[in-house]
Design brief:
The complex is a heterodimer.
Chain A (H helix, E strand, L loop, with lengths): L6 H12 L7 H9 L3 H25 L5 H9 L1 H33 L6 H17 L1 H30 L14 H12 L21 H28 L1 H4 L5 H7 L13 H30 L5 H16 L5 H32 L7
Helix pairs in contact in A: 1-7, 1-9, 1-12, 2-3, 2-8, 2-9, 3-8, 3-9, 3-14, 4-5, 5-6, 5-12, 5-13, 5-14, 6-12, 6-13, 7-9, 7-12, 9-11, 12-13
Chain B lengths: L1 H17 L12 E11 L2 E13 L8 E13 L2 H11 L4 E2 L5 E5 H6 L2 H9 L8 E5 L3 H6 L8 H14 L8 H9 L4 E10 L2 E11 L2 E7 L4 H7 L5 E6 L7 E18 L2 E17 L7 H30 L6 H8 L1 H6 L2 H7 L1 E12 L12
Helix pairs in contact in B: 4-7, 8-9
Classes of the chains: A mainly alpha, B alpha/beta.
Chain lengths: ~375, ~375
């Protein structure tokens, strides 16, 4: 059965996988490399992300009703496709695994001080397994519902933070002499857009996903960029760039420095943020786990999807226990980030060139 | 069949993992910290403070709990960790610090530096990062030993007092997070509220100047207006101006900044700070009702402007000459505009030599619905 989803759901899938764990340490990383002009670096990062979103959306749009597995096989043959699929599968698998582990570590260090990390991992993986077995349409609906809640909550929280911040902390907005620094820093701002390659495993439908799918996906990347700028500016307005660089969970640290008396029992926003943040992480996890399992099920056709899902989740749980320190997890995440060059840039561009050369896009 | 068993496993797992908290403890079984005092006594760190005494209420309200009163705590140690160990050893239940209202630093401790304690609060999870910090003239223990009749406890009293004063713009309410941001930004100077025991009650006495997180000076409450006009979020201050016709008659004004603009510039290797303050003044009352002409209004506006300008200028002069310390944070205004120059100069030195221009304009906007110029016909 082909699983078709609407354009809006595609947009929210992008939001679901892109906005996740990274939002918590985004202000630190950007402040470290771009200072108060970080918004400009985010803007450059967003523009680059839009280009690759367009490329991947284009591939799906040209090869209707096909996922990367099918159109890559058509374009490059079985062997190359198998290599591509293994790369994507391992990439999504490690993304899900390490994000689960780092999230559990953060939760343990911030709210559940006495809960073992493996227990938190187990809860995450159990929920992810259940969601993944319900396949793409259900996952898309989860992302749609969660996405709306997350967007409203993050924007509300940011304005709450702004109300307690100082405008002078966000200045200077732009220093012309520092433009090179801003451009260099955009390398850091591209990482928070990792995950958009999930579009490669979504089959586009002729009826449901017309040309507007480009508008939806690009608009969503733009909206994510806007949210990132909002989060960044809100955080530095309260903490200042010099202070925020010392906090790995910078967004949470900022929220904990804010107290809005007029909100009465909601005066402390950290409780709301933790819920929303876990929702964002959950969306990232189910989508990346689904990506890995889906591609594996394409490679190993003899075993059912649900059985593969079960084994992948068990292995993910074991692998998530491998790193001993948070520094090691961070190293794993850095490598995952670097490998996204293959999944977002090299492989899609290769497939795009072949599509263009073989003129597959002429019939659309 | 497999599906049903899988669902059962998930339901049972969810029941075990998600229902309630397995290590839940009732509020009655927690030692809730209300306030903390940190001081130095004989080269030892002294932790004092108050904890809520949670008691079961009367028979009519059985099952409910209420914070009826507090009990005092005291512990010593060479380090914070050692003092905390003794603190824990005295506590009947696990300590919960999330409800702490205030940290009171004794003068002796503040003089040696409060930064290590600020970092401690920042890193311990359950403390609020918006915790109020004050410095007390008397040893912190003495503050907590005082019997409080105006509020639930000393901690609540200090917090409530500074809260209402800062809302009126008559005091500052700096929290730990703000102080930490100042320290991280390289601003070595900041100010904290200063409290003490006056006439056997706890009172707000003014501000203390912290340089490199060490207490270097005290600013009396009567000299704080100039600082409040610049640093308070919404200062609403009162100004008493004698009438030009009758010195015994004093006009009481409520003044509020409408516009506050601070600009820094760099001219001939000299820092110039320009402060423009537009005030609105409301005449609350006169000691004796007199007619007020338009000229008198203009005269009053001029006098208010002059008084406020002088108080701001003298506050800044004090910071430049006496404390050599930029607790007004003009540095940020300069850095925003001249980030490259800022990297090359010694701000502390430049600040002490800076030219400061204060320009205050006052506009009287109402007379509190009074008409002093009413014509008597009968």
């Amino acid at each position: 059965m082909k699983e078709h989803i609407t354009n809006r759901q595609i947009a929210f899938i992008i939001f679901g996988i892109v906005v996740g764990y990274g939002v918590i340490n985004l202000p630190k990383n950007i402040a470290e490399s771009a200072g108060t002009g970080g918004w400009f670096s985010i803007l450059i990062g967003t523009a680059i992300a839009i280009v690759f979103t367009y490329i991947i959306t284009y591939l799906g749009y040209v090869h209707k009703n096909k996922t990367i597995y099918e159109y890559s096989e058509m374009l490059t043959g079985k062997i190359v496709t198998s290599i591509f699929m293994i790369i994507y599968s391992i990439y999504f698998f490690l993304l899900a695994t390490m994000i689960t582990r780092i999230t559990s570590e953060t939760i343990k260090l911030t709210i559940l001080l006495r809960t073992p990390v493996w227990v938190l991992n187990l809860v995450f993986f159990a929920a992810v397994y259940y969601a993944v077995t319900k396949k793409l349409q259900v996952i898309a609906r989860i992302c749609e519902i969660y996405g709306l809640i997350i967007i409203i909550a993050i924007i509300t929280i940011c304005f709450g933070i702004f109300s307690q911040g100082k405008l002078i902390n966000t200045r200077p907005f732009f220093v012309l002499e520092d433009i090179q620094t801003y451009i260099k820093a955009s390398a850091v701002t591209i990482f928070p857009f990792i995950g958009l390659e999930i579009l490669t495993i979504i089959p586009f439908n002729k009826k449901e996903n017309n040309k507007k799918v480009f508008k939806y996906s690009i608009f969503m990347i733009g909206a994510i960029g806007f949210i990132y700028i909002l989060v960044y500016e809100a955080c530095i307005a309260v903490m200042g760039v010099d202070s925020i660089i010392h906090y790995k969970a910078a967004f949470l640290a900022t929220i904990r420095r804010v107290d809005i008396p007029s909100l009465q029992f909601l005066r402390r926003l950290d409780g709301i943020f933790i819920i929303v943040w876990i929702m964002t992480v959950f969306c990232t996890l189910i989508l990346s786990a689904y990506g890995s399992i889906f591609l594996l099920s394409k490679l190993i056709k003899k075993i059912s999807f649900n059985k593969i899902a079960f084994f992948v989740i068990i292995i993910a749980f074991i692998v998530s226990q491998v790193p001993n320190t948070t520094a090691q997890i961070q190293t794993w995440l850095d490598y995952i980030g670097y490998s996204s060059v293959f999944t977002i840039v090299i492989i899609p561009i290769t497939l795009l060139i072949i599509t263009k050369v073989k003129k597959y896009d002429k019939n659309i | 069949m497999i599906k049903i068993s899988r669902k059962l496993v998930i339901i049972i797992l969810s029941l075990i993992l998600l229902t309630g908290c397995w290590d839940y403890e009732d509020v009655n079984n927690k030692s809730i910290t209300i306030s903390i005092g940190v001081d130095r006594v004989n080269n030892m760190i002294e932790f004092s403070g108050e904890k809520a005494k949670i008691t079961a209420s009367s028979k009519k309200e059985e099952g409910k709990a209420q914070a009826a009163e507090v009990y005092k705590v005291l512990a010593y140690g060479k380090t914070f960790e050692e003092a905390r160990k003794h603190f824990d050893a005295e506590s009947p239940y696990p300590i919960f610090s999330g409800a702490t209202r205030v940290v009171v630093f004794g003068t002796r401790f503040a003089k040696q530096g409060i930064e290590p304690y600020l970092n401690r609060v920042d890193s311990l999870y359950d403390y609020r990062k918006t915790l109020l910090t004050v410095v007390s003239r008397e040893p912190a223990k003495q503050i907590f030993d005082l019997k409080v009749e105006k509020d639930i406890s000393v901690g609540f009293l200090i917090e409530d007092m500074l809260n209402h004063l800062s809302k009126k713009g008559e005091a500052l309410y700096p929290n730990i997070g703000e102080s930490l941001s100042e320290i991280a930004s390289g601003n070595t100077c900041y100010i904290l509220p200063y409290i003490g025991i006056e006439h056997n009650v706890i009172a707000y006495l003014g501000l203390v100047v912290m340089k490199e997180s060490k207490l270097i000076g005290i600013i009396d409450i009567k000299d704080t207006d100039g600082i409040l006009y610049l640093l308070s979020k919404k200062p609403i201050l009162s100004e008493a101006i004698p009438s030009s016709k009758n010195e015994n008659n004093i006009y009481s004004f409520r003044t509020t900044p409408k516009k506050r603009k601070i600009e820094a510039s760099y001219e001939d290797e000299k820092v110039v700070i320009n402060i423009n303050l537009d005030l609105t003044a409301e005449l609350l009352y006169q000691y004796y009702m007199e007619k007020i002409s338009d000229d008198e209004i203009k005269n009053m506006e001029k006098k208010i402007s002059e008084k406020v300008r002088n108080s701001i200028a003298s506050s800044i002069k004090k910071a430049q000459v006496e404390f050599k310390c930029d607790y007004f944070n003009f540095k940020k205004h300069f850095k925003v505009k001249y980030s490259k120059i800022f990297e090359k100069i010694d701000w502390e030195e430049k600040f002490t030599e800076a030219e400061v221009n204060v320009n205050v304009k006052t506009k009287m906007i109402n007379m509190n619905l009074k008409d002093p110029n009413a014509k008597k016909k009968f």
